[in-house]
Design goal:
Oligomer: single chain
Strand content: 15-25%
Structural class: alpha+beta
Number of helices: 2
Radius of gyration: 18 Å
Order of helices and strands: HEEH
């Protein structure tokens, strides 16, 4: 278990060992999920990482955003 300190600028430095274990890279987007007194950081997948995750979805009737209104 690693212990970190919240800075006066509300920043947290993730320990290098944790970054290596989770394979997080500088600039990677993380979603912060808060529940009770606990906060979890979850990587936000890129579109490339999501490509192909739902191959059985039919996209034939999906409209472009400009066509929705």
């Amino acid at each position: 278990m690693s212990v970190v300190t919240l800075s006066s600028k509300n920043q947290v430095v993730v320990p290098k060992a944790v970054l290596k274990q989770l394979k997080w890279k500088p600039g990677q987007k993380l979603a912060v999920l808060a529940k009770g007194r606990t906060a979890s950081y979850v990587p936000v997948p890129t579109l490339e990482e999501l490509r192909g995750c739902a191959p059985s979805v039919n996209l034939d009737n999906i409209r472009e955003e400009v066509d929705r209104y």
